[in-house]
Amino acid sequence: MNQTEPARVKSRWLGLGVLCTGMFMIVTDGTVVNVALPTIQVELGFTQANLAWVINAFLIPFAGLLLLAGRLGDLIGRQRLFLTGLVTFTLASLLCGLAGTQELLIAGRFGQGVAGAMCAGVILGKIVTLFDDPGELGKAFGIFAFVLTSAGAAGLVLGGVLTQLIAWNWIFFINVPVGIATIVLAIRVLDDDRGPGLGRGTDFLGAVLVTSGLMLAVYTLVEIPNVGWGSSSTLGFGAAALALLVGFVVRQAMAANPLMPLRLFRSRNLSGGNILQAVYVSASLGMFFITSLYLQLVLEYTPLQIGMTFLPMTAITAVITLGFAPKLNARYGERRMLIIGLIPIVIGLALLARVPVDGTFLTHLLPSMVLIGGGGLVVPAMTALAMADAPPSDAGLAGALFNTMQQVGGAIGVAVLAAVSTAHTARLATEGTPQVEALTGGYRLGFLVAMGFILLCLAIAVLVLRKTARPVPTDDAAEPAAA
Question: What is this structure's pTM?
Answer without folding.
Answer: 0.79
